[in-house]
Amino acid sequence: MNAVILAVLVMVALSLLRVSVVFALVVGALVGGLVGGLSLDDTLSAFNEGVGGGAQVALAYATLGAFAVAISRSGLPDMLANRLITLLGKEATAAHQARVKMLLLVAVLLVAISSQNAIPVHIAFIPVLIPPLLAVMNRLQLDRRAVACALTFGLTAPYMLLPVGFGAIFLNDILLANLNSAGEPLGLEISRGMVPMAMALPVGGMAMGLLVALLFSYRGQRSYASKDVAAPNGQTHTPVEPHLLGLVMSGVAIVAALGLQLYTGSMIVGGLVGIGLLSLGGIFKWREADDLFTSGMRMMALIGFIMISAAGFAEVMKATGDIDSLVAGAFDLFGDNRGLAALVMLLVGLFITLGIGSSFSTIPIIAAIFVPLAVQFGFSPMATVVLVGTAAALGDAGSPASDSTLGPTSGLNVDGQHDHMWDSVVPTFLHYNLPLIAFGWLAAMTL
């Protein structure tokens, strides 16, 4: 069996059995490396080389966790929660609660969408915005799987469609550049305007998946215990009385943290400056910074270690060389059947991205092989864009190692009541990857 397929299957199977995702990634990498012909030493060496690339992301998560804990001490989260609880009013009818739930989900969705394009901070907003809202979600008995689906849609669909912010990087700098690079010797030329047009139908499939998740799959009530999101053992939450200076400094710190991240490209710098401003504002004493970082790292530790392990996993998969053989070997199965060829391209992209956890990293791997095959099978330029773009995006939503699922889990699981695999990964896989396959195939066959 191909080493990449086996490694991904081992990793996903262990994760679904509630084995730690970190352990599943390490075991999957070892299995894939050994089956792929690497020695144990070579496998470990490749894994260790990849681990270094994930350390910066892990530190960024820990810093954001500390910043979120610091914000919680200002009283701003409690004021926000109280305002939303007031919005609920005394009316407790199911219809009224349903309206408030939808308002909350739409607000979260809009913020997530803007984090990719209008204010491209990616997942940095989640540890600041989501934990304070958990008390309101608990009161509404809002199913957090619906929130996870809304967040993941907002983190993935915009960069696939809108060429602004992260979308400009994905659509223009990576997808368009790799398509034209691979297609130039074949006479294939893709214009900038063709890319978002080609991706519109697959993204429409994701939008349908989102509506199914919010209006049908997870519209029912789900009960959660009220816990202190900053406490390790789930103690009863003690509200912080908001005061003017704390609220002002919290607003300044949030704006400064996001602004610096945009300017420097570093979540670490933004988080540290935000923490420093909160300390200057008297929200906490600087000598308490160690406790603050400890609480933040406790909140984000698992997510950070998953990101580190995922980087090692990806490096082992590349070292085996079986990604290229997976792509090439898949096409021996379907002869001259265009429909089957399109389906296999999408499924190969799904497997690669599930393991690597990044659609941005998948495009350079598959474009050089997919583009000549698409031309050979007579696919139009628009259909070629759809095949490569959708194949890369498949698996971003629904991968245990993707920040599009790890980000929502980092905010929704701060009180230990949101399982990463069953409450983030599986719901987003079902509601986004299946429609992407169907609508991506339909677009490839009709455009």
Compute the CA-based radius of gyration: 22 Å
Mean pLDDT reading: 77
Number of helix segments?
A: 18
The rounded distance between the terminal residues' Cα atoms is 34 Å
What summary fits the major beta sheet?
none
Number of DSSP E strands: 0
> Which stretches are poorly predicted, pLDDT < 50 over at least 5 residues?
231-237
- Portion in helices: over 70%
Structural class: mainly alpha
Spatial shape: globular
Please state roughly what percent of the residues sit in beta strands, choosing from under 5%, 5-15%, 15-25%, 25-35%, 35-45% or over 45%.
Answer: under 5%
Order of helices and strands: HHHHHHHHHHHHHHHHHH
Give your account of this protein's structure.
This protein has 447 residues and is mainly alpha-helical. Helices cover 75% and strands 0% of the residues. It has 18 helices and no strands. 53% of the residues are buried. This is TRAP transporter large permease subunit. Residues 2-87 form the Putative Na+/H+ antiporter N-terminal domain.
State the gist of this model.
It is built from 18 helices and no strands. It is mainly alpha-helical. It is found in: Cell membrane.
Which properties best describe this structure?
mainly alpha; globular; single chain; 447 residues
Present the secondary structure layout.
Elements: H1 3-16, H2 21-35, H3 40-72, H4 76-88, H5 94-114, H6 126-140, H7 144-161, H8 166-183, H9 194-217, H10 244-264, H11 267-280, H12 289-320, H13 322-330, H14 338-356, H15 359-376, H16 381-393, H17 403-412, H18 420-446
Membrane topology: Multi-pass membrane protein
Protein name: TRAP transporter large permease subunit
Keywords: Cell membrane, Membrane, Transmembrane, Transmembrane helix
